[in-house]
Amino acid sequence: MNIEDLLKDPNKLEEVFKKTIETNDELMMDKLYMYSKDPYNLLNYAIKNQKPLPYKKELIVASFPDTSYEYARKVLRERFPLGEKEIMKSWKYSFLYARDVIHHKWPPGEPVIASSGVYSYYYATIFWFRFKEGEKAIIKNEKALQYYMENLEKMGKLDEFYKDHPELNDPTLKTLLTNSSQLEKEFQEALENKDIEKANLLAPYSTSPINVFNYAKDILKGPFPEGEIIIAQDIELAFRYIEEITFAPFQYKHIFTSTPENAFRYAELFKKPFPEGEDIIAQNPELSYRYATEILKGPFPKGEDIIKKNPYWAVQYIKNVLKDRKRSWEPYIKGDTESWKEYLEFLKSINQYENLMMEEETEKSKKEKRIKPQSGEIEEADIDLPESLF
User: Fold this and answer.
1) Average pLDDT in the 205-234 region?
2) In contact, 248 and 225? CB cutoff 8 Å
3) DSSP-derived secondary structure for 228-253
4) Which of 70-74, 133-137, 159-163, 369-373 has the lowest mean pLDDT?
5) Taking the alpha carbons of 195, 198, 202, 204 in that order, is the dihedral positive or negative?
6) Cβ distance 134 to 128 under 8 Å?
7) Residue 382 has what pLDDT?
8) Residue 129, Cα to own-chain centre: how many angstroms?
9) Where are the domains of the chain?
């Protein structure tokens, strides 16, 4: 079956591509990979070649937490920012990414790790520290709690753990802590019934973002710092928590660095720079421009590489931020007729139009001289050279 036939059947193409990887058919493998849209096939191709993929193929690999983690670990052998948004959704791969790729604690993954008792215990053990944010989940898992407490005893932190968790001496509450679904059900009922006493009792142990959010909004009617790591598992709820309850910076703001849109939205909330989000904002030309004009009120160097490649936003940035001619960007802008017209009008307004015209005329003359000999001159190819020179 030739490639033209395979392109008509994407499933068959992926099946054949997978086999070429398994059999190490390099010639066919290299031909098929450019048409593949399967993250697992592309991952295995990259592992086989031990070379990073082009950006567009990396975007496909970045669509799942497991492929993102494996690509970072087995191909890049360093962080894979494009895949971190998906990795942050998985407690397993957030833990593995921290352990095997970053080799130290990874705050962006901690909210989701903290929702799993087992992986909170693993995380605390590997990096040998008391992981307070994960203790709610650890307490709900008898085995994880046992091993975690043994570690805390070795660290000399067991007494402070007991002090922070008096509920471990309450038989009724301790039973609820080992039955997560029942605890969340009773917590939700307490919230609906405005049972403040019971809600206050259960709130510290809830791992439900919506329940914790509603507790802060309806019972506390204000911030709930202890529950913010749980709310951080849901980015939209985290935004609502800021907009409706705290009106203040979020302590786990790294979660907003998952996409350019989220990073810009966070900066926009406070109309202040968001340094942690600038690398991701710089991947989007429009948001880079808006970050410069609305937040920084001046140039945004990190975003200029992406801005210059978009003729429309390049012209807006030049006009409203740089306010001067930008020669090195002109080849990009020329590719779009309307943007080039707008750019020329801007140059006229700052008295730079004539300079551009003169430069272009000079460059044109130079090209003509290189191509066409001056009148009366003999072209090099027409000169007879003596044979003795050869």
Assistant:
1) 94
2) no
3) HHHHTTSHHHHHHHIIIII-S--TTG
4) 369-373
5) positive
6) no
7) 46
8) 27
9) 179-249, 268-370
Judged on CB neighbours under 10 Å (0-12, 13-18, 19+), 109 is buried
pLDDT tens digits, one per residue of 5-24:
888 888 899 999 999 999 99
Decide if 153 contacts 130 (C-beta within 8 A). Answer: no
Q: Are 146 and 117 in contact (CB under 8 A)?
A: no
Please, which residues have CB within 8 angstroms of residue 85's CB and are 6 or more apart in sequence?
62, 258, 259
> Whole-angstrom Cα distance, residue 289 to residue 37?
31
Say which amino acid occupies 69: Y
| DSSP 3-state of 258 | coil
DSSP per-residue letters across 5-62: HHHT-HHHHHHHHHHHHHTT-HHHHHHHGGG---HHHHHHHHHHHTSPPPHHHHHHHT
- Assign residue 348 a region (left: φ > 0; alpha: ψ between -120 and 50; beta: otherwise): alpha
Q: Per the structure block, which two tokens stand in for 215?
A: 């507790």
388: how many CB neighbours lie within 10 A of its CB?
Answer: 5
Per-residue CA distances from 383 to 377, 378, 379, 380 (Å)? 11, 7, 7, 6
Other beta carbons within 10 angstroms of residue 308's beta carbon come to 20
Tell me how many helices (H) and strands (E) the chain has.
27, 0
Give every CB contact of residue 198 below 8 A, 6+ residues apart in sequence: 186, 187, 190
Alpha carbons 91 and 207: distance in angstroms, whole number: 13
pLDDT score, position 258: 87
The pTM of this model reads 0.68
